[in-house]
Amino acid sequence: MVLDGLLRGRAWVVLVGALLAGIVFLNVSVLELNRGIARTDAKATALERKNSSLRERVATLDSAERIQRVAETRGFILPRPADVTYLRPKRSDAKLAATRIQPAAPQPATPQETATTTPPAAATAPPSASLPTAVSTP
Q1: For 19-43, how does the pLDDT look when each residue is reduced to its tens digit (9 = 90+)?
Q2: Which domain covers residue 10, as residue numbers?
Q3: Which of 10, 31, 37, 50 has the fewest CB atoms in 10 Å of its CB?
Q4: Residue of 88 and 136 predicted with greater confidence
């Protein structure tokens, strides 16, 4: 009797309606998630294609033959094995380099700065006369 009254009453209709609305809401949510997943998948596929073409371009640009051709067109030559030497650093080289460090040359002033600033009072000392000169080998 009680069950019969519940099934024929308005509460049952409201409960079934609420359950159906919940099912519809869940279906809509799942469809939105699927659409987002499809969009992300499409972006991932496009990025994979682009990465593949970029890898191909890097492989082409990284080719040793291409680099040699470009170097030759710009006037570079490949040294003979006998022309290649290695330097052995000495402790005195570091000390000499440290003593030769000089402050950077002052930058040219803009017209606005010349009107508001004064020139530096002291100039740096001239470079040492014992600096080595470049030596070229035949």
Answers
A1: 999 999 999 999 999 999 999 999 9
A2: 2-71
A3: 10
A4: 88
Is residue 138 domain-resident? no
Task: Give dist(CA 111, CA 48) in Å, integer.
Answer: 52
Number of structural domains (the chain) is 1
pLDDT at 108: 78
Q: What confidence tens digit (pLDDT) does each residue in 74-133 have?
A: 999 888 888 888 888 888 888 898 899 988 888 877 666 555 555 555 444 444 444 444
DSSP assignment, residue 14?
Answer: H
AA letter at 8: R
Find, among 106, 122, 102, the residue nearest to 114 by Cα: 106
User: For residue 137, is it within any domain?
Assistant: no
